[in-house]
Each structure stands twice: as C-alpha cells, then as structure tokens.
Write a structure and sequence with these properties.
Helices cover 44% and strands 16% of the residues. By secondary structure, it is of the alpha/beta class. α2 runs parallel beside α4 and α6 crosses α8. It is globular, with a radius of gyration of 20 Å. 43% of the residues are buried. The protein binds nicotinamide-adenine-dinucleotide and thymidine-5'-diphosphate (TYD).
Length: 362
C-alpha cells in the first residue's frame, strides 16, 4: 500500500491510469494534480472514490513539495504534458514550459521531499513517448531502449529533454526513477484532436477525414489499458534507473487504421438502426460508405514516417505483453465513443473549435 501522486490525471492516459489503479489497487491513496488545460477534464474522473483532485500546475514546485509531504506520497506517476505534435508546430514554447520546466519542477520537489533528511522509499515514474527516437525507414529495426535519441518535432524534443532530466536526477542525486517510452495510445477519454477520436467523430457527422500526405505513415497502436498495465509492471517490477519501451504489437499505416475505422462505423450502423437517427449526417446513415469521407490534405511539416517498438526488454523483465489486438481494442473504443456522446460533446468547446480552425484552415 502506498499513496500515489498522478500528474496530468485528468487527461486521456492519466485518467485511464487512475481508473485502472483504483480498480486494481484499491488500498492505495491517489492524489491527482492537473492544471486543467484544454486537454484536462475533471469529468474523466467521474464515478471514482478514494481520490483527491488538486487543481494546480506541476511548475508550482512548492505546491508539489507540500502535496508530497501532506499526503505521504511514495510514488509519482508523471503524465502531465502538452501532448499533441500539431499544436507543438503552431506553438512550441508551451511544450518547453510544461514538458521541460514542469518536469524539472517535479524532480526538484521530489528530491527535496524524498532525498533530504532521513530519506524515504520512493519511485518517480516518467511517462514518455517512442517519438524521442525519431523516425524509421521501412526496413529499419524497431526502436529499442538503446536506440539513440533523435527527436524531430518540438513535442518530441521537449519530451526527450524531460527524459534526460529524469535520467540525470537518478545518476546525480540518486532519485529512484523509471521511464517508459510508449507508442500511439487510443481508447476512452482521448481528446478528439488525435487521429482515432477525431476521425470517429468526423465520420459520425459526415465531415471530411483529413489524411496528412499520402497516409502511409506507420504507427504502433497501443490500447490505453494495455499501456496502464505496462506502467503498473514498471512500478511493480521495473529496475530503478531503467527505461522500458511499451508497445501494442500493432504496427499499421494510417490508411489501414482509417479503413478499419470506416468499416467498423459502417458495421455499427448496419447492426443498430438507432444510430442513423442519432447521427443523420453520417454517410452510413444514408447507406453510403464512411470511407467516402477520406480527404488527402497537406502533410504535417517534419512528419515522422514510421515508429515501431521493440518490446523485448519489457516482455523479458516485466512480463508485459499487450492483451488486445488492434481490432479488439478498436471495437471497444468505437463502442465507448458511441455510448459516451455526452462526454465528447462537452469537451468540444470553444477552444477546440478554435484549434480546428487554426490547424485545418486551407
Ligand atoms: P493529454 O494531453 O490528454 O493530457 C495531458 C494532461 O496534463 C491534461 O489533463 C492537462 O490538463 C495536464 N497538464 C498539462 N500541463 C500541465 C501542467 N503544467 N500542470 C499540471 N497538469 C498539466 O495527454 P495524454 O495523451 O494523456 O498523454 C499523457 C502522457 O503520455 C504525456 O506525457 C505524453 O507525452 C505521453 N504519451 C502520450 C501518447 C499518446 O498517444 N497520447 C503516446 C506516448 C506518450
Ligand atoms: P496523432 O494522433 O496526432 O499522433 P502522433 O502524431 O503523435 O503520431 O497522429 C497519428 C498519425 O495520424 C500521424 O501519422 C499523423 C496522422 N494524422 C492525420 O493524417 N490526420 C489528422 O488529422 C491527424 C490528427 C493525424
């Protein structure tokens, strides 16, 4: 039994992690620290008991230090970040402020709370991305933990910087850290700026599906609950000072993901006549294929071509393996978005519409 501080716990992966942890470790106390940026939504934590939500910024070092002391926190799981590559192209500074300065602030607070005085048993788990490794050619081996860092976007550069800080706080100050670098997550509560929820919601409204470039960029897709299981394995079995790559075993070109999504939407409408009444503008409501919404648009600047995860180390040391195929995980995700229309209507507020106007302006 321990008490956890989960940063960014009102965002997509953080909220899924809090739900997961409460289900599997109900004796642990959980404090969520989240600044509630456009991506944070307290409703993502609805229905949970045994958690305390703190509206605050990870850059507020004094606040973090006080939370660690007041709540007897022994574990930090650090998700809070600016997380969207396209936004990092439009406004890189926020990514340095949150991902680099914010992580520095957390490390500073953790060091003060845990390493001064008598010392405490503790763990700082840092959640990072496979994007720090850069981009792969079609025949290159997948990213392993020893692949040299080569970040290409302001987002991945800021995450790489934060990974280096975490590593340094271990080597220099003895902070007990682990880091995980994972692939593209999908699942419940994902903000509809990322590929899968954006395309699902556009498909339901009969809006174009904007495919960057030729759509042949390759990503590994990881269901968010499998990611949570991977982080749990890092916390329980990971060796201090080590990094672990966590993947979904589903390396797919975007066009295949999009075609899978379109076919699943068509099948859902065919199976449930009520969907046509709820979403009358969907092509599927008019007997047309959803794939007719595919629209090729200008490529993202600096768009990484391929990411792939070699998870040999996580399998061998942590016993980690994804529990779902992409088809299973995607079917669950579609079901969740159809069942939770109220959630995604509520998050698509004014700031979201401003973002769509900026990013997809022609
Ligand atoms: P998200 O954008 O959905 O959520 C981020 C959360 O952090 C939000 O709740 C936001 O309010 C909060 N936050 C932002 N700045 C903050 C600050 N200064 N102080 C406190 N809270 C702040 O992101 P996500 O997709 O859930 O990603 C979580 C983590 O996982 C990030 O570190 C991201 O880099 C990493 N990651 C994500 C993916 C993915 O596919 N989504 C893949 C690999 C790694
Ligand atoms: P995204 O979900 O933004 O994740 P990341 O950039 O971190 O991989 O994008 C996943 C892939 O989908 C990526 O290759 C970019 C592409 N994409 C589009 O083609 N159109 C879109 O509107 C979006 C958001 C992404």
């Amino acid at each position: 039994m321990t008490n956890l501080l989960v940063t960014g716990g009102a965002g997509f992966i953080g909220a899924n992690f809090v739900h997961y942890w409460r289900r599997h470790h109900p004796a642990d106390g959980v404090v969520v620290l989240d600044a509630l940026t456009y991506a944070g939504n307290p409703a993502n934590l609805d229905g949970l008991t045994g958690i305390e939500f703190v509206h605050g910024d990870i850059r507020d070092t004094a606040l973090v230090e006080k939370l660690l002391a007041d709540h007897g926190i022994g574990t930090i799981v650090h998700f809070a970040a600016e997380s969207h590559v396209d936004r990092s192209i439009h406004g890189p500074a926020a990514f340095v402020d949150t991902n680099v300065i914010g992580t520095l602030s957390l490390l500073t607070a953790a060091r003060a709370a845990w390493l001064t005085g008598p010392g405490h048993a503790h763990r700082f788990h840092h959640v990072s991305t496979d994007e720090v490794y850069g981009t792969l050619g079609p025949n290159d081996p997948a990213f392993s933990e020893t692949t040299p860092y080569a970040p290409n976007s302001p987002y991945s550069a800021s995450k790489a910087a934060s990974d280096h800080l975490v590593r340094a706080w271990h080597h220099t100050f003895g902070l007990q850290v682990t880091t995980s670098n994972c692939s593209n997550n999908y699942g419940p509560y994902q903000f509809p700026e990322k590929l899968i929820p954006l395309f699902l919601i556009n498909a339901l409204h009969g809006r174009p599906l904007p495919i960057y470039g030729d759509g042949m960029q390759v990503r590994d897709w990881l269901h968010v609950e499998d990611h949570c299981r991977g982080i749990e394995a890092c916390l329980l079995k990971g060796r201090v000072g080590e990094t672990y790559n966590i993947g979904g075993g589903a390396e797919l070109p975007n066009l295949i993901v999009i075609e899978t999504l379109c076919a699943a939407v068509d099948a859902a409408f065919a199976a449930d006549s009520g969907l046509a009444a709820r979403f009358p503008d969907a092509p599927a409501a008019k007997g047309q294929p959803t794939v007719s919404l595919k629209t090729f648009v200008t490529d993202r600047p600096g768009h990484d071509r391929r990411y792939a995860i070699d998870e040999t180390k996580a399998r061998a040391e942590l016993g980690y393996a994804p529990a779902r195929t992409f088809e299973q995980g995607f079917a669950e995700t579609l079901h969740w978005y159809l069942a939770n229309e109220g959630w995604w209507h509520a998050v698509m507020d004014g700031s979201y519409r401003d973002w769509v106007a900026t990013n997809y302006a022609v």
